[in-house]
């Protein structure tokens, strides 16, 4: 099936290796001008801007681009750039298995707040006291990959972990410190279950049962920590997937409704319009007009 939006793997962006790409951003951007159009990645992706202006769109949310900003993306998210003027910094693309084979805790990255696929948590302004350290760490990564040495990949992963932990420590992402460890674990469990089951399980009571808690407990937890109900968390994820599917013009509205297990087109259209403010057809036309 032909997709309107391309899906890139690391091999399609570099001839060097299939699991890792580390580069300064300006030459990377020069080599991949087509990435200003909407696209998906099959890998984890992050960029630290040391110079930049304009905007980018991640999963249909537009955010400004500026100096000393870093953003993180997980596989499957939709992305495009609209830069203004000169842009530079550092980019890392890495495969899903890169850390699974390195760390005993295979799902370590999923515990980091900026790798949850939530745009508001994944675009981060770096404070002045961390900017120099971060730049030095990225320069270390560049040096390691430009001049291969023994244990090169292990050193690269160790430096990347320093970057991840340094950013995870920032106060704006310390939600796990303000929520009890039990409730934090429950919330992460809920989010992971949604990711696996959003097409088939659409009610809070379904997830509450899998978590061995009451629907009221789950709803109170989501309201306290996220500011929205458990039902809204589920509906937001279904709507996001609908948007990702709608940008493929080879999929009919009926096929998309079927993939997301809606009983019929009218129910899907009513759901989507309530969540997105547009009908599926209107959203598709609006998205296509921006390409």
Give keywords.
47% helix; 291 residues; five-stranded mixed sheet; globular; 13 helices; alpha+beta; transcription; transcription regulation; Arc Repressor Mutant, subunit A; 10 strands; HTH_AraC; RmlC-like_jellyroll; DNA-binding; Jelly Rolls
Descriptive overview:
The chain has 291 residues and is of the alpha+beta class. It folds into 2 domains: 7-175, Regulatory protein AraC (Jelly Rolls), CATH 2.60.120; 179-289, Homeodomain-like (Arc Repressor Mutant, subunit A, Orthogonal Bundle), CATH 1.10.10. It is built from 13 helices and 10 strands. The chain has helices at 25-31, 97-100, 119-122, 128-146, 152-168, 175-178, 181-197, 204-211, 215-225, 230-246, 253-259, 265-276, 280-289; strands at residues 7-8, 20-24, 39-41, 44-51, 53-58, 61-66, 69-73, 78-83, 88-94, 123-125. A 5-stranded mixed beta sheet has the order 1-3-8-5-6, with no helix packed on it. It has a 5-stranded antiparallel beta sheet with strand order 2-9-4-7-10. Helix 8 (204-211) crosses helix 9 (215-225). It starts with 6 loop residues before the first strand and ends with a helix. Residues 172-177 have low confidence and may be disordered.
